[in-house]
Amino acid sequence: MxxxxxxxxxxxxxxxxxxxxxxxxxxxxSEAEFIEQLERRGIEVTDSERAAALGREQPAxxx
Length: 63
Description:
The protein is mainly α. Helices cover about 60% and strands about 0% of the residues. The chain has one domain (about 1-55). It has helices spanning about 5-15, 20-25, 30-40, 45-55. The longest helix is centred in the first third of the chain and has 12 residues, at about 5-15. The model has no long low-confidence stretch (mean pLDDT about 85). InterPro entries: DUF7317 (IPR055741). This is Putative HTH domain antitoxin.
């Protein structure tokens, strides 16, 4: 993981310049991993972003 890419992605996400998905991609992390990094640094992640990133927005369907 490139520290510079992560730092930049955290800054841009915190400023809401990038979406969670865009920032995670820039950092080279999955969205779940990026959320962990945000939480470690006290950067707010909305419930809707968290749910979308972690696949809990809609129940999974088997059909």
